[in-house]
Hints:
Layout: E1 6-12, H1 16-24, E2 33-39, E3 48-51, E4 54-57, H2 60-69, E5 84-93, H3 98-105, H4 114-126, H5 129-138, E6 144-150, H6 166-169, H7 178-194, E7 197-199, E8 207-208, E9 212-213, H8 222-225, H9 233-247
Parallel strand pairs: 1-2, 1-5, 5-6, 6-7
Antiparallel strand pairs: 3-4, 8-9
Amino acid sequence: MPSQNKSLCVFGDSHIGSVRKAIGDGKVKLRGIDVEFWGATGENFRNINLVDDAIRPQSDEAAEVLKSINARGRLSIAPGDFDLVLFYGARLRLSSFVPSLVHHMRKPHGYMSEAVLRAAARRFIGNCRAARLAKWLAGDGRTRVFFAPTPFLTWGVLDHRQDKRTLALYPEVESTTAEERARLIGALSAEMAQDGVTLVPQPEETVVHGVFTDQKYAVENAAESGDISHKSAEFAALMVDSVVRAAK
Length: 248
């Protein structure tokens, strides 16, 4: 009998390493789901794009990195190749969207109508190549597409008040409320839904100090490396669990 398992592609940049670790360590259960990883790290991620009706690497270097990530030698993705695709990280950065808008909205006369907020969300999504690829992949309805943006920067690893970091630029955003976050991320979610893509929001229990991720979800050895972007396998497990529940 043919397999009745669903197929899931985790598509992204270096952030997908935490998903691989979460699955490998058994932190997330994917019963009945076959998983492939697909993408590229670093600058090579820029060389993945839509070419000849499929998502492909556009350089030999990107193709070599892709081969090291995808164990099955898959060099392209098109609608219908997978039941589910999860864009993970993939350069859609919450820390490039939420703090700047909270900063604007906290100014006198900084109120943003829903129409203006949705327009800002649309511009932000439109400027992300991976979000455009997600829209294309979801276009004919054969593949369910999810997008987990790059999460908020990690608190407690570096001083966010120094060196033109977030709180140096926007000191007031440390008091961002859950309601403010929900409104802004809700605008992103609504705009992505228009494209047939389901946004996977960062869980509220992982957010601290308004626009940061709790240090307990820091990537391994973050203190030594100063890595405030990547997160732990425990964090990835929370995100993938959300996708699995939604897929059911």
